[in-house]
Write a structure and sequence with these properties.
By secondary structure, this protein is of the alpha+beta class. It has 2 domains: 103 residues, Ubiquitin-like (UB roll), CATH 3.10.20; 121 residues, Fumarate Reductase Iron-sulfur Protein, Chain B, domain 2 (Orthogonal Bundle). It is globular and about 65 Å long. Keywords: 2Fe-2S, 3Fe-4S, 4Fe-4S, Iron, Iron-sulfur, Metal-binding, Oxidoreductase, Tricarboxylic acid cycle. It catalyses: a menaquinone + succinate = a menaquinol + fumarate. GO terms for molecular function: 2 iron, 2 sulfur cluster binding; 3 iron, 4 sulfur cluster binding; 4 iron, 4 sulfur cluster binding; electron transfer activity; metal ion binding; succinate dehydrogenase (quinone) activity.
Length: 252
């Protein structure tokens, strides 16, 4: 019996590329009074990401295009931007998941001072983050002088909010944050939640007092924009609601 067909090498099917138009909101503070839109055509593959398209533009068409990126794998959170009107990470947004029959609009996240192109000043965001004391506070020695033990249930109580990568996608999707620069914002509250409900921490009351403020949790209008925007799938609105309940009824 002939094995000619069985032994024949398998030729992989060629992946077709296509042209994608990106319309990017540009701003150079040295020459521009206001931001403006510029369009770029790039050849892409379905498995490419928006970040890959931005790289092709920067490396092959316009080296002045400015944006942040680091790990390119959805961990560092540095490449959050608005893609077709939604907050996303450019490194996690596949071209094939967008409607490429229309231009792809890319702009900086909202609510933070625009520095250049897709780069915003993150300092107001991190100022709110630092204000909620996002670190473990314990004034007593661990039992037996060793590590502080937690049960599985105690760890699960705050597991969801440990996933935050500080990309600001949630905070910059919040309409309250857009209009009120003093609001702590969802990300700061999420990181406070992570320690408020940590059984090893002894500073929950201080954080609850910080957030029991006009610009704290009570500014949340429960629009769920933050939960939808989070690239890590954190239930942000639920975390904010749990902090509200802790203020009203005590930590549980």
């Amino acid at each position: 019996m002939s094995t000619a067909f069985a032994d024949a090498p398998v030729v992989p099917e060629e992946i077709q590329s296509f042209t994608v138009t990106l319309i990017i909101r540009r701003f150079n503070p040295e020459v521009d009074d206001e931001p403006h839109w510029e369009d770029f055509d790039v050849q892409m593959y379905p498995t490419d990401r928006v970040l890959d398209a931005l790289h092709k533009i920067k490396w092959e068409q316009d080296g002045s295009l400015s944006f942040r990126r680091s790990c390119a794998h959805g961990i560092c959170g540095s490449d959050a931007m608005r893609i077709n009107g939604r907050n996303r990470l450019a490194c996690k947004t596949l071209i094939k998941d967008l409607d490429i029959t229309k231009p792809v609009y890319v702009e900086a996240i909202k609510g933070l001072p625009l520095e250049k192109d897709l780069i915003v000043d993150m300092e107001p965001f991190f100022e709110s983050f630092r204000a909620v004391q996002p670190f473990l506070v314990s004034n007593t020695a661990p039992v037996g002088g060793k590590e502080r033990i937690q049960t599985v249930a105690q760890r699960e109580r705050f597991d969801d909010t440990t996933k935050c990568i500080l990309c600001a996608a949630c905070t910059s999707s919040c309409p309250v944050f857009w209009t009120d620069g003093q609001y702590f914002g969802p990300a700061a509250i999420v990181n406070a939640h992570r320690f408020i409900f940590d059984s090893r921490d002894e500073n929950a009351a201080v954080r609850l007092d910080i957030l029991n403020d006009r610009e704290g949790v009570w500014r949340c209008r429960t629009t769920f924009n933050c939960s939808e925007a989070c690239p890590r799938g954190i239930q942000v609105t639920q975390a904010i609601a749990e902090v509200k309940q802790a203020i009203l009824r005590g930590k549980a």
